[in-house]
Fold this sequence. Notes:
Chain B: This is N-methylglutamate dehydrogenase subunit B. The complex is a heterodimer. Chain A is of the alpha/beta class.
Amino acid sequence: MKQRYSVFSLVRNAFSSHENWSKAWRSPPLKPAYDVIIIGAGGHGLATAYYLAREFGITNVAVLEKGWLGGGNIARNTVTIRSNYMRDESIPFYVKSVEMFEGLTRELNFNMMHSKRSMIDVVQTYGRLRELRRRQLAMDIHGATYQQITTQELRRRIPALTGGGANARLPIIGGMVHTDAAVNRHDAVAWGYARGADSHGVEIHQQTEVTALIRGGDGAIAGVETNRGTIRAKQVVVAVSGHTTTLTETAGLRLPLRTMNLTAFVSEPVKPLIDVIVNCPDSGFYLSQSDKGEMVIGGAPDRGQSFRRDIKQHVFEDSVSMMLSLFPAFKKLKLMRQWGGHLDIAHDSSPIMSLTDVAGLIVTAGWWGGYKAIPAGGLTLAHLVAKGTPHPLMAAFTLNRFKSLDYVMESGTTTAR
Amino acid sequence: MLLISCPNCGERSEGEFTYGGPVQAPRPNPLETSDEDWVDYLTTVPNPLGPVQEYWWHAAGCGRWLSLWRDTRTHDIVEPPHGL
Ligand SMILES: Cc1cc2nc3c(=O)[nH]c(=O)nc-3n(C[C@H](O)[C@H](O)[C@H](O)COP(=O)(O)OP(=O)(O)OC[C@H]3O[C@@H](n4cnc5c(N)ncnc54)[C@H](O)[C@@H]3O)c2cc1C
Ligand SMILES: [Zn+2]
């Protein structure tokens, strides 16, 4: 039986030098067939497995992961959770996801270190101000919080922001505050969902790389080819963030996605200095301070498609110089680590969660700010797998929108210039 | 930093260039092509794990458009794949 984490279990295990905690998930032998195969043990794959079991009672499920669980982009992102999107189709979905994140620690009995703090957009051009005001009105309709503040108020709330004065190339002209925004612990999200899925009977197989999708004589999906042999299933879910086209093309399916590299870096830990998430869309970077005290800084995506996982010097220098123009004192900070990850971005920048032309093959992709989407993404994808029809919150995000040229162009996804 | 070779100016830093997207098949005539092919042309670009051909614009230089092959795994500019 799965142990519960609590103050008491902590104290109890302290007496045995923490050597008797039971494993958070099992490593069962691989079976030749399952009802559902989920490719990718990232946030989306694991959350989907969890909700499939918990909400729909579908437990003969294998999650196949080429590396280690939670080692993909979920380990590489900057954990900004927010719902300030632009489209009537997007906002309710992200509102739901942010709400689910708030209850996740309790639901999964796993400490997500969830920390709700406002996100402040630092606005430096009038075009951007108009765009964000428009977003504010769109969000008002759906109950998400987004409000304009003055430059004085912005500087009061972010004292470290001393650049961007009247003589700067891009002077700060105002700000927008999104109070629902939060950060939390990305590993905990992966581990919490893995533990939850496992306790409902789902199998997680690490070091199991899917090399091709297999179709049967009728054209429908029949299973997958892996480095550990063939595994059969009538339903296969692709949740591989960035590598979607690489896999779907093995089944002859082309998708309107391109893979991009996004980068981030962190500084040495310093004393508490910034208690909001600062987003500078005109300058092309954003930052927040982690519980450990590090500045966590994200930059703009690389130009051109990329499957690289490291950072490009060019993009890195650009982000750093823009950051120093607004936070001149940060030039004293030592930068400790830098990394990149790859995301697939759909033609209209909105996610794709859809059945495909290959019967039984389901994709979740295009999550180019997809960390915040993990709880609602898993719940709605589980619904699609179990019922065969999209969840109402995701109905606009199927592949049909490309066929009918009915795109959901989403400007709210991007911090890029 | 990539060095991009401009036919006009020689090798220049990537920072002088603007990215122009992957090279696609020629634009079909929308009146003659099937809906499926038209949608495909409008929305779907090559996304290979490996060499891709793309356009770059020497915007902060001579203004010339050029195309090159780049490996999406390494970012290195590479020779076109065999036969192209
Ligand atoms: C630098 C950076 C900053 C970001 N910041 C934010 C942010 O602040 N807020 C936000 O909401 N989003 C952010 N994102 C986006 C977010 O990280 C992703 O959208 C999200 O993590 C992707 O979903 P996932 O967690 O399921 O993917 P992943 O964690 O990448 O899961 C996919 C898994 O599939 C596995 N896989 C791939 N191919 C195969 C195969 N053939 N066989 C088996 N397994 C395979 C991978 O190893 C991986 O573990 C950021 C991304 C990056 C790179
Ligand atoms: Zn030139």
